Structures are given as structure tokens and as C-alpha cells.
Amino acid sequence: MEKEFNTLQKECLKSFESLCVFGYREFYKNLLCILVEMQYQIYCKYTPVPKRMMEMFGVSNAPLVAHMMRRGRFETTKFSQAYTEWISQ
Predict the structure, then answer these.
(1) Residue 78 and residue 84: Cα distance in Å, rounded?
(2) CA neighbor of 64 nearest in space, from 30, 37, 32
């Protein structure tokens, strides 16, 4: 017997799924910001976070590294979430 879901239930599920995706991305963005700041505190310059350190925190996968490298190259941005912008504030 298949249960039918009404429109409200489907929309609630979509909203919950979106919230989960947002939370997942925010978690990793914040973790990367912390790692970048920690790297700066140790070496006094903004360099990419070493692969070994990223592996320690489980963030050493190709898409995440590529994303961090793209965001780290922004000199000025209109997005306050950019890593270099966020760290400098």
C-alpha cells in the first residue's frame, strides 16, 4: 500500500532538504575558514592549507579543494562569505 503525500508535505520535505544542504555547506565553509586562519597564524601568510592538515579534518577531496582555491583567489568580492574577506574582518 503506497502512501500519497499532499503538496504541503512535499514542500516541507524540499525545504528540509534545502536546509540540510545549506547546513552541510556552511559547516565545511566554516571549517575551511578556521583552517586558513590557523595556517595564517602559524606561517603569517595566507597560503593554501597543506593537504596533510586537510586530511586530518576530512576535507581533502577534489571538489572541496578546488572550491577553496577558487575562493582564495578573490581579491575583492561582493560576497562576504569569501574566505579571504571573512578572515580579514
Answers:
(1) 12
(2) 32
